[in-house]
Amino acid sequence: MRFTSEKELNEWVSEAERVWLFLDYDGTLADFNRTPDIIKPDPQLIDLIRRLAAKISLRLAIISGRSLHDIQVLLPIKGIYLAGTYGIEVQTADGERIQRDDYALVRPYLEQLKPLWQEIISGRKGYYLEDKGWSLALHARFAPDKESTRIISSIQQTLNQELITDEYRLIKQKKFLEVCSAKAHKGKAVSFLLNSFPLPGARLVYIGDDANDGEAFQTIHAKEGVAIAVAHYFGYIRPTGGDYALKSPKAVRRWLENLTHWF
């Protein structure tokens, strides 16, 4: 890791004239809910993000796997960038909505997959099929290990590999599988924001907790920024390649609270 202590990290950040802060939501700013359809805005988190957004020297972007609508509900704050479904749908700090792909082209294949996936998990406990519009995701966090491995394998067999390679991407993690546009990629989302809304001279900081954030870490590192991993979750350490690690969303909020005093 780049920093051996939080003090070193804090010195690097506090020396900056401006900072562009990129934040994941679930597992980073907030603990995971049992299923993603549970959307409960947290007044304390909203207040924290609002105070950060008011700092002239800070620019904030939330980049989440959740839909843009969900993020808008969770963080109804003006003046920040919101990127939903891994950055395929963006709301700028001025409130402008940007779609980085053609929904009419992306959606038909997902419509084909949805009933197939529903049939595979029908009558089984511990599964949740999430339709985000731009993507289709199967959550199997509470399903038995052996069964979930078999079910996810069956789900994968429904996929057209040529389409997955060219037009769509497959995101597969422990007890999780998702199909979405090939442009739904947090690293590409960071690049889009940096190129479309440049902030010359700003130091870049990204905080995230999983492999999707790890893709953004690569982009951040290419721009000489800093990646902070929320490393401990579900009892194991996620290898995201961060420059420093915070242990939990609670630790992330504590660090962000300190940030409000530096700028």
Topology:
Elements: H1 6-14, E1 19-23, H2 43-53, E2 58-63, H3 68-74, E3 81-84, E4 89-91, E5 97-99, H4 103-121, E6 128-131, E7 135-139, H5 145-156, H6 161-166, E8 168-173, E9 176-181, H7 186-196, E10 203-208, H8 211-222, E11 226-230, E12 232-233, E13 236-237, E14 244-246, H9 249-259
Strand order of the largest sheet: 5-4-3-2-1-10-11-14
- Counting DSSP H or I runs of 4 or more residues, the number of helices is 9
Please mark out the parts with pLDDT under 50 across 5 or more consecutive residues, or reply none: none
Q: What would the principal axes of the Cα set say about the shape?
A: globular
Number of beta strands: 14
Whole-number tally of structural domains? 2
Relative strand content:
15-25%
CATH-defined architecture of the largest domain? 3-Layer(aba) Sandwich
> Measured on Cα atoms, how large is the radius of gyration?
18 Å
CATH class of the largest domain: Alpha Beta
* SSE-based structural type: alpha/beta
The CATH homologous superfamily of the largest domain corresponds to: HAD superfamily/HAD-like
* Main β sheet profile: 8 strands, mixed
Q: What oligomerization state is this entry in?
A: single chain
Helix content: 25-40%
Distance between the termini: 25 Å
H/E element order:
HEHEHEEEHEEHHEEHEHEEEEH
The CATH topology name of the largest domain reads: Rossmann fold
Kindly report the average pLDDT value. 93
